[in-house]
């Protein structure tokens, strides 16, 4: 396929890089802009910088022209802003990356270009922050520039759903901008592209999606704490409830919520609602519950150690998994980082291993973890960890296993004579 339009993707991370690859494969002339020089060098070498397997076949067919001079953006008909939008320590949204990217595009804009914001933002950002940046440069929205928002949908490590086939929603300031954005996404994505009535609605969609998940995860995490006191295995209860063929969607408790979206996006709405004198109590409570889970997991470890006459201080603890999600090397908002920090502050001797993030490991592998530890915390359900024979824990003298992902066979561990502590089990 050939397309005479040129696309520039600003921000070549988990969102921007796959999109840039897809656009190139679909026939667009693609340019990529990022301030990380090392990342740009890897892209030029045709490396899969986000390690998504579905991209392995696409990358050799794709060509991404690296933008090293901002003026090159002037050649592009479509500019896509895909930069991160984190929150700070007080959970306030940090929109500086979106502002900076918007300014870069506005100063180097091809008149009549389509600008799409894919970064996750709270309702009102396009109108209150992005639009004024272009107007300050003398452009009239809807005439000289068309601004749309299509919230990214990426699920790292998912073998089925990816940037090429996940349905999307699009909003814009006016009809022409909306039609241009719809035409673009329909040309690259093999899924439904739903137009929203306003750009604010499009901004709100992503926040609602992830707040929904955060709330439901908080619900089962709270159930886990409650049911553990009652002697009820919450995972069995959830499986039982999931047999209902309607009006129930299973969510699962764990050592905490990670990733860039679920633990972050609700704060966007919480803070934005304050501008309208509204307090999202439900969202705040959900965030508090999920933020408590790393420390609840540590309490399980302390209980297990007490049963063998030990305390955290000087205890040899094995940590299996640092990534927030199975089978990917992603540290963003990982609950394990909080667990590690707290255990170190309490004097525990940690032996950490994650095959996907070797720079955060201090042992060579699983065998060394088992040799050096008296208790093990499974904090990411990587396939390598699920393949460990439970008998091997016993043979190496492991006395307690803390199953932070509820991914192990509780019954067998207990039969082997080891202490088992799961989340609500």
What is the mean pLDDT? Answer: 96
So, CATH architecture of the largest domain?
3-Layer(aba) Sandwich
Overall shape: it is: elongated
Can you tell me the number of structural domains?
2
CATH level 1 name of the largest domain: Alpha Beta
Strand order of the largest sheet: 3-2-1-4-5-6-7-8
- What quaternary form is this? single chain
How much of the sequence is in beta strands? 5-15%
How many strands in all? 13
Helical run tally: 14
Summarize the SSE layout with pairings:
Layout: E1 6-10, H1 16-25, E2 29-33, H2 37-44, E3 64-66, E4 78-81, H3 96-107, E5 113-117, H4 125-136, E6 145-149, E7 168-172, H5 175-188, E8 193-195, H6 199-230, H7 234-241, H8 265-274, H9 281-307, E9 316-320, H10 335-345, E10 349-353, H11 366-372, E11 375-378, H12 383-386, H13 390-395, E12 400-403, H14 410-415, E13 419-422
Parallel strand pairs: 1-2, 1-4, 2-3, 4-5, 5-6, 7-8, 9-10, 9-11, 11-12, 12-13
Antiparallel strand pairs: 6-7
Helix pairs in contact: 3-4, 6-8, 6-9, 9-10
Overview of this protein structure:
- The chain has 425 residues and is of the alpha/beta class.
- Helices cover 39% and strands 13% of the residues.
- The chain folds into 2 domains: 6-197, 3-Layer(aba) Sandwich (Rossmann fold), CATH 3.40.50; 285-422, NAD(P)-binding Rossmann-like Domain (Rossmann fold).
- It has 14 helices and 13 strands.
- Helix 6 packs across helix 8 (265-274) and helix 6 (199-230) packs parallel to helix 9 (281-307).
- The longest helix has 32 residues, at 199-230.
- It is elongated.
- The N and C termini lie far apart (54 Å).
